[in-house]
Write the structure tokens for this entry.
Amino acid sequence: MKPVHFKQANTVYAVNQLPYLPMPACRDCDGIVTSCWRFGFIERLALLVRGRVYVQLATSDGRPQPQRLSIRSPQ
């Protein structure tokens, strides 16, 4: 799965920060950051068969941050 550019993107995070991939995103004035990700062919098959997506987040205080996964653009 890789982050991809989308119409509403207005910033890119992790530019020139190896080993991270640059992540195009839309940062709203209310602090909400939206990114778009594309599944590879094998990942699509695995999602179809297993029906699961795992999410990993890095947190500074150990508490998970609010998040939302969707198959539709919020814009």
Notes: The longest strand covers residues 33-38.
